[in-house]
């Protein structure tokens, strides 16, 4: 068990981040904390991709004599794009939250539900 | 020129969308004309592309000159050509509606064109990660459009949509990670060949990837029980946006799901792993029943139409998952037909509300004589959705049922046939109120109006859109045989098993 933890700690971190993020997203009553949870959930996915690219003894993917094996550069590029997408989503979510707060004066989901359905 | 068409279809609306955004610093009046010119060009290019695909077969384009398995490839076959044309035509039609119905602002038209770019990108791409990027562009533009109503409840609906939609897209991204780990490629055609060779179809890795990607996309399609964002978003958005996103956003997501099933995982995967196929068929059947039951119990007409989408998309996904040639043709026809019919229905509710104030099922009583043209179009579209021949709704459902009969799975056939009765249950109620009931009230006083309050006038353009949608719902039936022929030619591995 300890060996598995030692050799695959990245994957445990991914699972933890995904779990914590999803739990916050569902369970927190505060809208801002929900968005933070969404970010943690996405970070877990980013870490998963970066972990995929790694190989033991691999070099940075700059082609030169005797450079192989290289780590895969592809997941890094994908995650760069996904981070940009994540930042835009957070920006839109926060803008919507500001709008909701100025209108209803609360960030609490339960109170908002009462106001929303009245 | 022809090879560059797919990428032009994506670039044109992005460039066009930047203009109203920049011009809004000076004046908000530039938005509509710029959007119209852009989308006229878009519709022309999409028509040319669809015609080329229909006569010469598949068109593909390597973005940036990087050849296929390494670079991003855009591929247009009969299926994606038809969906790209649908996106261009419907967005142009909704624009005629938006002229009067608003919202009248530069940023609105910027987002509108960005959404067209995202939807077209999802349609033409041949790369699973590129699909994720366009999925998120579509999502971002749709969240912004839903929130563009003046009422703050639109912002609440948009935030709900954003959070659920992002989880869906993130699950899809996680699924891409699993596929990349299994095969080391992201190109759809390359994935299709490598999936069987490098990783067994029933290995845990591939099954998890399938579950995550399909699960993520069903959130965007809004199948039960992942539909909870959808009724709020459709009912609280401005009428223009309801008509636009109800017609296209879920439709293109369902197309992406079909693309994933047939061009990435392929029919061999579905045959090798029956549990995956039947899980999807089961989910679709639950969605058909639950969506209809929820639709029957709604009081607000727009929410009823939203739940009706949950049920109809269940039907479409069931057709794709059954995956016999007939069922796939039927599901595609119903997918395209549903977009026209549901967009038209939402547009009609907007007109009826503006003219009479009626938003609820009871409020529609006796309105047939007060708004004769819109009410008639609404009735025609309703009956087309139920599947009364010769409307296009009938052809789609007929093919899906025939496909299910061929697989001899009678439980599914029963659900599919029952779905027609259930659809009748909620639409007949409305049509009956429209024409055969005494006018009771205009609208319930405690209900907030759904319009953005930008004037209650109804223009000729708005009514024309609804009438054309109703006419198309019947006339498209005539195009089905030709369309089936194109599908059979461009998707041979899929349809000639």
Automatic annotation (TrEMBL), chain A:
The keyword Transmembrane helix applies. It is found in: Membrane. The chain crosses the membrane at residues 6-26, 38-57, 77-101. Keywords: Membrane, Transmembrane, Transmembrane helix. It is a multi-pass membrane protein. InterPro entries: CPA3_antiporter_subunitC, NUOK/Mnh_C1-like. It holds the Pfam family Oxidored_q2. It comes from the Archaea. The keyword RNA-binding does not apply. Its main location: membrane. GO terms for cellular component: membrane. NCBIfam families: PRK07375.1-6, PRK07375.2-3. This is Monovalent cation/H+ antiporter subunit C. It comes from Haloarcula marismortui ATCC 33799.
From TrEMBL, chain B:
One of its GO terms (cellular component) is plasma membrane. Its main location: membrane. InterPro entries: CPA3_Na-H_Antiporter_D, NADH_UbQ_OxRdtase, ND/Mrp_TM. PANTHER family: NA(+)_H(+) ANTIPORTER SUBUNIT D1, NADH DEHYDROGENASE. The lineage of its organism: Archaea, Methanobacteriati, Methanobacteriota, Stenosarchaea group, Halobacteria. It comes from the Archaea. Residues 126-423 form the NADH:quinone oxidoreductase/Mrp antiporter transmembrane domain. The keyword Membrane applies. The chain crosses the membrane at residues 6-27, 34-54, 74-96, 108-125, 131-149, 161-184, 204-229, 241-258, 278-301, 313-336, 375-398, 410-428, 460-483. This is Multisubunit sodium/proton antiporter MrpD subunit. One of its GO terms (biological process) is ATP synthesis coupled electron transport. Signal peptide: none annotated. It is found in: Cell membrane. Pfam families: Proton_antipo_M. Keywords: Cell membrane, Membrane, Transmembrane, Transmembrane helix. It comes from Haloarcula quadrata. It is a multi-pass membrane protein. GO terms for molecular function: NADH dehydrogenase (ubiquinone) activity.
């Amino acid at each position: 068990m300890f060996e598995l933890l030692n050799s695959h700690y990245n994957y445990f971190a991914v699972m933890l981040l995904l779990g914590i993020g999803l739990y916050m997203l569902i369970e927190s009553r505060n809208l801002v904390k929900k968005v933070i949870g969404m970010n943690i959930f996405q970070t877990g996915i980013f870490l998963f991709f970066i972990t995929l690219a790694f190989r033991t003894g691999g070099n940075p993917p700059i082609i030169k004599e005797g450079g192989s094996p290289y780590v895969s550069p592809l997941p890094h590029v994908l995650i760069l794009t996904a981070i940009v997408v994540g930042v835009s989503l957070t920006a839109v979510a926060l803008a919507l939250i500001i709008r909701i707060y100025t209108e209803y004066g609360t960030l609490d989901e339960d109170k908002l539900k009462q106001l929303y359905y009245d | 020129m022809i090879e560059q068409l797919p990428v032009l279809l994506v670039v044109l609306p992005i460039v066009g969308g930047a203009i109203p955004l920049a011009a809004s610093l000076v004046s908000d009046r530039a938005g509509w004309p710029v959007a119209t010119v852009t989308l006229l060009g878009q519709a022309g290019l999409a028509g040319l592309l669809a015609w080329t695909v229909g006569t010469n077969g598949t068109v593909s384009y390597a973005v940036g000159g990087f050849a296929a398995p390494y670079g991003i490839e855009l591929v247009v076959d009969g299926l994606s050509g038809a969906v790209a044309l649908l996106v261009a035509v419907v967005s142009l039609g909704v624009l005629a509606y938006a002229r009067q119905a608003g919202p009248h602002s530069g940023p609105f038209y910027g987002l509108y064109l960005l959404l067209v770019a995202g939807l077209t990108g999802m349609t033409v791409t041949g790369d699973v990660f590129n699909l994720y990027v366009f999925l998120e562009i579509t999502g971002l533009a749709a969240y912004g459009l839903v929130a563009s109503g003046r009422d703050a409840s639109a912002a609440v609906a948009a935030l709900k949509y954003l959070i659920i939609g992002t989880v869906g897209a993130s699950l899809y991204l996680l699924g891409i990670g699993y596929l990349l780990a299994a095969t080391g490629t992201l190109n759809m055609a390359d994935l299709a060949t490598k999936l069987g060779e490098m990783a067994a179809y029933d290995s845990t890795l591939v099954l998890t990837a399938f579950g995550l990607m399909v699960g993520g996309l069903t959130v965007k399609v809004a199948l039960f029980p992942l539909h909870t964002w959808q009724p709020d978003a459709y009912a609280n958005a401005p009428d223009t946006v309801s008509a636009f996103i109800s017609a296209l956003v879920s439709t293109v997501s369902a197309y992406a799901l079909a693309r994933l099933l047939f061009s990435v995982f392929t029919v061999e995967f579905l045959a090798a792993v029956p549990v995956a196929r039947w899980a999807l068929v089961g989910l679709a059947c639950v969605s058909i029943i639950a969506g209809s039951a929820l639709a029957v119990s709604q009081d607000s007409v727009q929410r009823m139409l939203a739940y009706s989408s949950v049920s109809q998309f269940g039907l479409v996904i069931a057709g794709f998952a059954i995956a016999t040639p007939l069922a796939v043709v039927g599901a595609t026809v119903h997918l395209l037909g549903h977009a026209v019919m549901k967009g038209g229905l939402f547009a009609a509710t907007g007109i009826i509300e503006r003219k009479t104030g009626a938003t609820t099922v009871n409020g529609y009583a006796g309105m047939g004589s007060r708004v004769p043209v819109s009410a008639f179009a609404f009735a025609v579209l309703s009956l087309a959705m139920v599947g009364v021949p010769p409307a296009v709704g009938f052809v789609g459902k007929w093919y899906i049922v025939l496909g299910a009969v061929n697989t001899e799975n009678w439980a599914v056939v029963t659900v599919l046939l029952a779905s027609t009765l259930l659809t009748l249950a909620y639409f007949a109620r409305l049509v009956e109120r429209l024409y055969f009931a005494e006018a009771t009230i205009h609208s319930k006083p405690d209900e907030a109006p759904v319009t953005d309050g930008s004037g209650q006038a109804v223009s000729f353009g708005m009514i024309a859109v609804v009438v054309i949608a109703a006419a198309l719902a019947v006339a498209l039936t005539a195009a089905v045989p030709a369309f089936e022929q194109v599908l059979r030619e461009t998707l041979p591995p899929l349809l000639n098993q």
